[in-house]
Amino acid sequence: MDTVLWFSLIAVLISGLSLGWNIYRDVIIKPRMSVDIAFGALIQSSRGNGTTLITSKTNPRDGAFIVMTGTNHGPGQIRCTTVTTRTSDDKGGKIPTFMFHDDTHPISDPLPHNVEPGQCIHLVFPYDTEGFLSKPIKRIGIKDSFDRTHWAPRKSLMQMKKRCSEDYISQHEAPSDAAARRE
User: Fold this and answer.
1) Upstream peptide bond of 106 is cis (omega within 30 degrees of 0)
2) Which among 35, 147, 149, 164 counts the fewest CB atoms within 10 Å?
């Protein structure tokens, strides 16, 4: 065979690989998001030029709220649509439910929300001892426009549920019982 035919075959092979990669990149690979949940509080800056969000998995401060943060790791934009939870029934079946966040909070983003690669979305929920942490929730996450749910780590949710139940017990027991339990 002469060299022109070889160059043509190599060009067809490279074009096919390029087409395959473009289809794989644009159709098959979807953006990924990491989600975390923690107690949050806004702290006034010492310089007086704004507020700072601080988070903790186990130690809610006065005026604390629950903040769910999702970070887009790319390769493209994600449109976050809802907050979803998963509970289980008596027979062990999984029941999906939806939650509404406090979109009037100053750091909370409204849903639906587009998140570019490298950016975060913050969703705020009120913290009280009879809120969603006291319910039998097994998972919590953010659903995107590709109908995938990006779940928060179970360990984070369980630590927060444990702290919520401790706060509930301390609010509803007699002062003498609380002092005896601390000793």
Assistant:
1) no
2) 147
Instruction: Compute the distance between CA of residue 133 and CA of residue 131 in angstroms, rounded to an integer.
Output: 6
| pTM for the whole structure | 0.75
| 37 alpha carbon, distance to own chain's centre | 6
The enclosing H or E element of 84 equals strand 78-88
Neighbour order of strands in the sheet with 51-56: 51-56, 33-44, 65-72, 120-126
Give the other-Cβ count within 10 Å of 19's Cβ.
Answer: 10
Q: CA–CA separation, 131 vs 99, rounded Å?
A: 11
Two tokens at 43?
């702290």
Cα 124 to chain centroid distance, Å, stands at 11
DSSP for residue 26: I
The ranges assigned to domains in the chain are 31-172
- For 31-172, give the CATH class: mainly beta
Which of 163, 112, 114 has the alpha carbon at shortest distance from 134?
A: 163
Per residue in 21-71, pLDDT tens? 888 877 778 888 999 998 888 777 676 667 777 777 777 777 788 899 999
Angle at 83 between CA 78 and CA 89, to 5 degrees: 135
